[in-house]
Design brief:
57% of the residues lie in helices and 12% in strands. By secondary structure, the chain is mainly alpha-helical. It has a single domain, classed as lambda repressor-like DNA-binding domains (434 Repressor (Amino-terminal Domain), Orthogonal Bundle). Strands 1-2 form a two-stranded antiparallel ribbon. The protein is globular and about 35 Å long. The N and C termini lie close together (6 Å). 9% of the residues are buried.
C-alpha cells in the first residue's frame, strides 16, 4: 500500500513556498519537508487540517492512494 503526498503540487498551484506554509501552520520547515517527500510514518489530523485551511483544499487534494 502506497500513499503519495501531493503537497508540492498544491504549493506550486497556490504559488506558496514551503517556508511560508511552515510558518503559517506552526511546524518546522524540516518537518514539512519530510511530509512533502513522503518520508513520514504518519501525520496528525490537526496538521493536515491546518495545511488544508492555509491552502484552501481538501485532504484528498494532498494525499493519493496508489495500488501496488
Amino acid at each position: 500500500m502506497t500513499i503519495i503526498v501531493r503537497l508540492d503540487v498544491m504549493l506550486a498551484t497556490r504559488k506558496m513556498k514551503s517556508k511560508d506554509l511552515a510558518a503559517k501552520i506552526g511546524i518546522s520547515e524540516q518537518n514539512l519537508s519530510l511530509l512533502k517527500s513522503g518520508k513520514v510514518r504518519g501525520v496528525r489530523f490537526e496538521t493536515l487540517a491546518a495545511i488544508c485551511k492555509e491552502l484552501d483544499c481538501q485532504p484528498g487534494d494532498l494525499l493519493e492512494f496508489e495500488k501496488p
